[in-house]
């Protein structure tokens, strides 16, 4: 663990080794601007830059990349700027370095207690793409729908299956999520007749998200061996899903209203530099080998060993009903705080993901599609082996047939109104952790009509 | 036809009745800003606003909505602002009105020959959604894949099937489009083994696009009877599609790289006010009736009678190969001009579309998904009855089995490198037309690897 003069609690996700990026504001200074987390503090990068302390050659030439309400401008600069910023911040915050530590006026202006800041979406997300990259997850879902012999679709081992998600409804951790209404078919009568009802199969999906740094020009694919240069960093993603709506709508064009009501992300973007010590070999791809545009050399074929966890925390009260209409308030932007007892329902890991992020990027752009700084790619549900390895309730309860038990004595097939879903993720180092913090959201009842 | 002091050629798509919105720049004044088209001229709305001539109460209160590089700010204002702007412009440009006409200095500053301007994307498009709303199209595709008895999927008559498209690769009419490479399976051997090749089944899709004005709050659906208030206007859309890539990749999450390499739109946004005289009854929905959240009263259930046409114009030369890589130039942003003979391959119409735009908006937001100003919704391929009624080559050639004949003596199953696809659309009034101009794009060969 790298030593800092900023206090870092022993169990913190944010030692000096990490330095994840976010965007924050305070009551006194409500303009959102970039920051990094260190222990229980945040360092205001706009203020640090104004103080002349981010003045290496690359960032100096790049201008006011931190005087912005999002990280998009910094993301666009690419690895030389990111490396310089990290080196500068590691130095400024390291134990023994007095520039900031001993300037009490400046220090009080740039270093703020995390408890006093409000976090914002870290980027203006132009496009959001969701993949389906976990073999364990795709296999489980496949067995449920088609049986063990035909679990994986014919294309699954040849390409990272993905689809375009909805960027407008990506919300920050802590934002309440409303249960959607949608078309669902109950029972097995033929012909199928749908009803318009609140989803009765509301699920979480544990995913890893990847923010794109520099993009590519339209028409110019990113080769798989260059794809890592385009990765700015990673967040936790909860891709809330309404399974009953999904089942009826998804043929032939894929999920739509079953997914686009909300996607939650964690506020802190953990960088490849911080995760590098936790790189590990990704699963081999030998049967079949992928096509050359997706093929990675064994040494380059890495994931990270990130321990992922999902808890459900029920509340007695499930909040108010409405929110919309002429007299209603906010429909989805509130923040509930749950007060129940949390039960861990998932323990997974990024390390077994079959298709790596560089492969997803290479495939996404193979036909010429352009990525832009701030675009978000997500992995799809991350499941792994083990008793709690399922990354969503659809798998954990085997389609709703085997409820999971919560510690308060209740059970769940799918989520109930008032449930708070809490995702967390961290890499375990020698005496320290590099983590993501939490991605949480409370499910509100469907809006009144 | 409303008379204007600005000359309007007899066959113009842009008489005073139309006043479509766009964004333009000139060589002398390269900052993009909003405009309207009138005859063969464009009226610079930024300059008109600066001259104090867009000073009704709503626009005055709204500030500098035209001093912007996109129309998003104006779109967000909603119908009162749009109505005021239209009334003001109709007055300023009407035959007997001298304010602009007689002020030669001001007139020369605000009214420019269309031939001297460069058009830009009219909006920053946050999210792009594509539907599948034409019954004729869905039926034809269904017959090809599943036979006449099961042509429509079980959900098709119950909801407007749609999916999220890619916003980053939406390009303006006139932008060249590169043929994508992708995974395709040739032949019928089992198990299927894909190759990575340039698509051999590159198709156009004739669609109508709808730009969203005011959005909705996350969690708060837009009722179908209020949905029209959220429509700013319409453009032509060519949703280029690689059928061979699509066939292999689309199960189970829908089209991805087969669509995301490019979508072309026409530069002029035609407003509901301009189209109102051409409103006509949409097809009845009685078997089955849609669910109440999608049900429209018969009088409200309208489309527009817009005659749509697609031509293919071949060229002898098919352009250069590459474009990417260290020494390459632009991959997809160039502009080719074809010089061949155009053949009309499609004559369709918006009027028979089964799911109306208000229904698409109501369904899109039914689960709480938020729309934002500048979002683009497209109809999906618009086919209708008749010998040239197919809105894409997949249908016109029945999956490539019945080539279409071009006037230069060649034939097409799918598009060849160098082909220019030209879409146009217009409503026929009594002695005038309200039209969209053209949406064109030339297909370049796949980039070299």
TrEMBL record, chains A, B:
Ca(2+) binds at residues 130, 205, 207, 239. The active site is at 137 (proton acceptor). Gene3D superfamilies: Fumarylacetoacetase, N-terminal domain, Fumarylacetoacetase-like, C-terminal domain. The keyword Cell cycle does not apply. Pfam families: FAA_hydrolase, FAA_hydrolase_N. InterPro entries: Fumarylacetoacetase, Fumarylacetoacetase-like_C, Fumarylacetoacetase_C_sf, Fumarylacetoacetase_N, Fumarylacetoacetase_N_sf. PANTHER family: FUMARYLACETOACETASE. Substrate binds at residues 132, 146, 246, 250, 381. It is an enzyme of class 3 (hydrolase). Residues 315-343 are annotated as: Disordered. Mg(2+) binds at residues 239, 259, 263. Its EC number is 3.7.1.2. Residues 17-122 form the Fumarylacetoacetase N-terminal domain. This is Fumarylacetoacetase. It catalyses: 4-fumarylacetoacetate + H2O = acetoacetate + fumarate + H(+). The keyword Metal-binding applies.
């Amino acid at each position: 663990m790298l030593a800092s003069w900023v206090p870092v609690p022993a169990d913190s996700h944010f030692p000096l080794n990490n330095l994840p990026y976010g965007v924050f504001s305070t009551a006194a200074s409500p303009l959102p601007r970039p920051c990094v987390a260190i222990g229980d503090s945040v360092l205001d990068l706009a203020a640090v830059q104004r103080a002349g302390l981010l003045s290496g050659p690359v960032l100096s030439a790049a201008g006011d990349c931190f005087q912005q309400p999002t990280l998009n401008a910094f993301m666009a600069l690419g690895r030389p700027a990111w490396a310089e910023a990290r080196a500068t911040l590691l130095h400024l915050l390291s134990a023994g370095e007095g520039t900031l530590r001993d300037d009490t006026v400046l220090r009080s202006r740039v270093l703020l207690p995390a408890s006093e800041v409000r976090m914002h979406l870290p980027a203006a997300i132009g496009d959001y793409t969701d993949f389906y990259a976990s073999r364990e997850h795709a296999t489980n879902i496949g067995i449920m729908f088609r049986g063990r012999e035909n679990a994986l679709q014919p294309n699954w081992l040849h390409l990272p299956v993905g689809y375009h998600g909805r960027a407008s409804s990506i919300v920050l951790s802590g934002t309440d999520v409303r249960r959607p209404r949608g078309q669902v078919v109950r029972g097995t009568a033929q012909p199928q007749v749908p009803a318009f009802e609140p989803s009765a199969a509301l699920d979480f999906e544990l995913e890893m998200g990847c923010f794109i740094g520099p993009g590519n020009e339209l028409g110019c694919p990113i080769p798989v061996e260059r794809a890592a240069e385009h990765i700015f960093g990673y967040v936790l993603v909860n891709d809330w899903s309404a399974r009953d709506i999904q089942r009826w709508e998804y043929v032939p064009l894929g999920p739509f209203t079953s997914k686009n009501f909300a996607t939650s992300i964690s506020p802190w973007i953990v960088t490849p530099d911080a995760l590098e010590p936790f790189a590990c070999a990704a699963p081999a791809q030998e049967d079949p080998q992928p096509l050359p545009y997706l093929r990675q050399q064994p040494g380059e074929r890495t994931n990270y060993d990130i321990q992922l966890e999902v808890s459900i925390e029920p509340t007695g009260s499930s909040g108010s009903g409405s929110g919309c209409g002429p007299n209603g308030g906010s429909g989805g932007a509130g923040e509930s705080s749950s007060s129940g007892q949390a039960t861990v329902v998932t323990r997974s890991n990024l390390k077994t993901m079959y298709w790596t992020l560089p492969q997803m990027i290479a495939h996404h752009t193979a036909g010429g599609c352009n990525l832009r700084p701030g675009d978000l790619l997500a992995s799809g549900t991350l499941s792994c082996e083990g008793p709690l390895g399922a990354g969503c309730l659809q798998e954990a309860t085997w389609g709703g047939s085997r409820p999971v038990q919560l510690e308060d004595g209740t059970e769940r097939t799918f989520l109930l109104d008032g449930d708070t879903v809490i995702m967390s993720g961290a890499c375990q180092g020698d005496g320290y952790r590099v983590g993501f913090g939490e991605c949480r959201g409370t499910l509100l009842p469907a809006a009144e009509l």
